[in-house]
């Protein structure tokens, strides 16, 4: 940062003390001599600090990665839910959509099912994409589709690409990346809520923990486990406990992770589902926890950090769009990383 003061001005010159050798009477004693109230103080007696304009960033844990002012006809934000049941658009999905709408009143937020995306399903991804495109100028970016996931799921992304092509919509996929620190914090909160981990200093809970080791359970295959392993490392640093990642539909399995913790001397295992909710079968999570004798925290659901990650995914894609460019500039991505 450069100094905005004019260095040529320098500091105020040191004033010479008065010559007291010609004065009559005893020399004055050292110490400050107060000026009469009526006597004006010289303007250059002391340097005066001038106020400076400062750039003050908004404080607090704000969730607004979406621009505060959206352009007219901005692409819709479509939450694509890889639901394993028919109620995937309720519960956490509805809560997340509500928070996004409250935080961003000008944003067109929609929800869609991925696995029920047939043309005859009004809540399917193809139908929602087509409706978003019909409400915007031809050729303009119509939607940013964000899979409601916190770990990679290649099969889901492949399904979304196919749906975008089939719908003819000019849409892009915005995936959630760089999630580990935020996920570690959210998982910490969920474990503390269940009494399975000591609370963080921010929330100031006083809880007696009932776990000596944690397993983060994911869905989406080995790539999801790899991402969750980084989150597990950060969570272990927060809790000062061993934390491993396991998969509900791949390897390492929950049983393998539990055996590894037991070999480390862990006797009380807690399960932290590293999922938002609809993408995993609740009954399967409960059965897996019972199989290893572990207590289980709730899924992430509509945690503030989950909402922030989805907003970030939308804002990142929006910043890359070029409304004046050709339609090819906003066509479906050819790879996972935008």
Provide the fold topology.
Blueprint: E1 76-81, H1 92-103, E2 109-113, H2 125-134, E3 143-147, H3 154-167, E4 171-173, H4 180-193, E5 213-218, H5 222-239, E6 243-247, H6 254-263, E7 269-273, H7 282-291, E8 295-296, H8 304-320
Parallel strand pairs: 1-2, 1-3, 3-4, 5-6, 5-7, 7-8
How are the strands ordered across the major sheet? Answer: 2-1-3-4
Number of helices: 8
- Number of domain modules: 2
Shape: elongated
Task: Output the structural class.
Answer: alpha/beta
SSE string: EHEHEHEHEHEHEHEH
Describe the protein's architecture and organization.
The structure is a single chain. This protein has 338 residues and is an alpha/beta fold. It folds into two domains: 76-177 and 307-320, Rossmann fold (3-Layer(aba) Sandwich), CATH 3.40.50; 180-300, Rossmann fold (3-Layer(aba) Sandwich). The chain is 31% helix and 11% strand. It is built from eight helices and eight strands. The chain has helices at residues 92-103, 125-134, 154-167, 180-193, 222-239, 254-263, 282-291, 304-320, and strands spanning 76-81, 109-113, 143-147, 171-173, 213-218, 243-247, 269-273, 295-296. The strands form two sheets. Strands 2-1-3-4 form a four-stranded parallel beta sheet, with helices on both faces. Strands 6-5-7-8 form a four-stranded parallel beta sheet, with helices on both faces. Strand 3 (143-147), helix 3 and strand 4 form a beta-alpha-beta unit. The longest helix is centred in the last third of the chain and has 18 residues, at 222-239.
Quickly list its features.
338 residues; Rossmann fold; four-stranded parallel beta sheet; 8 strands; elongated; disordered C terminus
